[in-house]
Amino acid sequence: MTIVTSADAQRVNPLLQPSTAPYAAVAFDKAEPADYKEAVLEGIRRHQAELDALANSTETPTFENTIVALDRSGRLLNQSVLALSNLESALGDTILQNIMMEVTPAISEHQANIILNENLWKRVKNVYDNRASRTDLTPEDQRLLSETYLQFASNGAALEGKDREKYRRLNNELSDLTVKFGQNVSNDMKSDSRRLWLRGDQLKGLPASIREAAREEARLALEAEGKADDGDSYLFTVFYPSYAPFMKYQEDRDLRKQLYMIYAQRNIGGEFDNAQVLKDIANVRLEIANLLGHPNYATYSLQNTMAGNPENVWNFLNELREAYTEPMKAEIAEIEEFAQKTEGPDFRLQPWDYSFWSDKLKNDKYAFNDEDMKPYFELNNTIKGVFGLATKLYGYTFKENKNIPGYHPDVKAFEVYGPDKDLLGVLYTDFFYRPGKAPGAWETEYRAEEKDDNGVRTVPLISIVCNFSKPVAGQKVLLTPDEVNTFLHEFGHALHGLSAQSKYATLSGTNVYHDFVELFSQFNENYLSQKAFLDSFAKHEKTGKKMPQELIDKFTRAQQFGAAYACMRQLGFGFLDMAFHTITEPMRASADVEVFENQALDPVRIFDAVEGCYLAPSFGHIFSGGYAAGYYGYKWSEELDADAFAAFEETGNIFDKKTANRFHKMLESGGSVDPMELYIEFRGKKPTVDALLHRDGIKK
């Protein structure tokens, strides 16, 4: 029997009440796991009531009472789902994971109900069909109208009869599958099978900071398992802060291969096998595309993108393949020849050798090592420097507010102010790795920016999540250049959300075409090699001296050296993504995912395939993230960001105010303007790959 106390009976879900936190921020400090479930389900109920009233209205459909009303509906639901999904990834809490699994079917069904509500669709279509009569609509109004119409039309609203119910069923099925895929990836990453235990005499070549981090990882794991710690155990995992430096510095080739195999066999067989799940996802997506009149999912998915269709994507990917293949082969040959001086003439470079020997060659050619830069990238100074980039370019300032609650002790919240001292929004930072936290780094929002009819702005709540190593025994956190690059990248996304000045949440911030959204994150990465930027914060943690130009030059040359390999690796992801999403016949249950992947990667292969090792079962970006038929967007955005940064370089000042003001307009505009129009207004022309080829050293 469950006993309900008076305290339980009186408790009110804080997520269902107006927040008393500064700026009505999420009440993380008061909410319990069950509150998120209740808030989502109540959000669905309230949103459905709003939609029912709208769909059943007897008023003549207008832009205001239909399109704007849709944009402003469902706020509780949207914010509750964002909070739950973000916390599930950031905390890795099994209770939250289970809640996410429980509510996902209801969310999917609700989303399908919106699109498949015939009365609602008729009202949207009526407004769209009569749009010529509304000469008073602003360009942003017109954009919202067209995007709303396309959202309905491209998601089955025009279907009739049994096809409508089939679409609903397929969407629910797809939602369940993608959640299952993502949770399998997360759970496998933290399973015992993804760990490598070593002794102190097996760490040859590893820097002291990496040894200390592995020692702390082992201590915590042994403590959690109730096992004795003999002081000589070291634990390495497939999470990036552990895996990447191990592959770069571990001198024992057999141990490198061992951890590589552990990494490359994720979600292949066992409890968290994703082979059949990904085939089911690909097949359901194909079925949805066919139902909506498209030959494959990519054709369907690429309608609302800068690329527009699969042909343009393939042309773009192949243009890069042709430009980078021979330079990549030259890079691999040079690394292999260098390694043979030590390993002998029969040595052949393998995937588990690349990081180690390319780093050795960079050291030999340029006397450069990532460890040489780490002392200049102390975390607190780096935070000031990265935030300072927004100050130099846009006049933004940042002020920590300890009264804004976070969801974990590691989380800090900052007020972000524009050049006019008006509050732009709140930025949460969650930098450190912890067990259960999803791998990688990401930016997300807890609340989007928007304005009401009086122009009063709702400030956005934006979050950056990373997986940097935590300080050990009171030591300073020193970041690698790659980690600083990651920080700059996610900060670019955050600025996109914080800078938003849109009237409608649907068009605000990062709510843009997916092959445009990475421009702002990747643009920031250009500054990592610029002394004028580095001098503002990159000071040696012991001597206080600024980073010397010689080291920056070595870093730049070293970055160019690996550029062809890095590009081909990204092209491999893009080719694989497009292969799965341009199938025109369902994948059979007996289909061999490994064979399919190897065939897809043949045109951009770097190393011979390693039997039993393949990417697709752990490729969360395309099977559980938002990048299905869209992974090409990273390289597409690289073309944009290189071309955009060239605009600054052409002025002779990488902080040029006039250029920054034009770039800032793109940041503010979100999805309220067609992205190519925005870019041409900024640059005066369409982008080309020339600046990217020049930056990578492919084109002199």
Mean pLDDT: 94
User: How would you sum up the major sheet?
Assistant: 5 strands, mixed
Strand order in space, largest sheet? 3-4-5-9-6
Helix content: 40-55%
Helical stretch tally: 29
The separation of the N and C termini measures 77 Å
pLDDT below 50 for ≥5 consecutive residues: which ranges? none
Class computed from helices, strands and strand pairing: alpha+beta
Please tell me about this protein's structure.
- The chain is of the alpha+beta class.
- Helix content is 55%, strand content 7%.
- The strands form 3 sheets. The chain has a 5-stranded mixed beta sheet, with helices on both faces. Strands 1-2 form a two-stranded antiparallel ribbon.
Map the helices and strands.
Blueprint: H1 6-10, H2 33-55, H3 63-71, H4 75-91, H5 94-115, H6 118-129, H7 139-153, H8 162-189, E1 195-199, H9 208-224, E2 233-237, H10 240-249, H11 253-264, H12 275-291, H13 297-301, H14 310-343, H15 354-366, H16 370-373, H17 379-394, E3 397-400, E4 412-417, E5 423-432, E6 442-447, E7 450-451, E8 457-458, E9 461-468, H18 481-498, H19 514-517, H20 519-525, H21 531-534, H22 549-561, H23 563-581, H24 593-601, H25 620-623, H26 633-649, H27 657-669, H28 675-683, H29 690-695
In short:
By secondary structure, this protein is an alpha+beta fold.
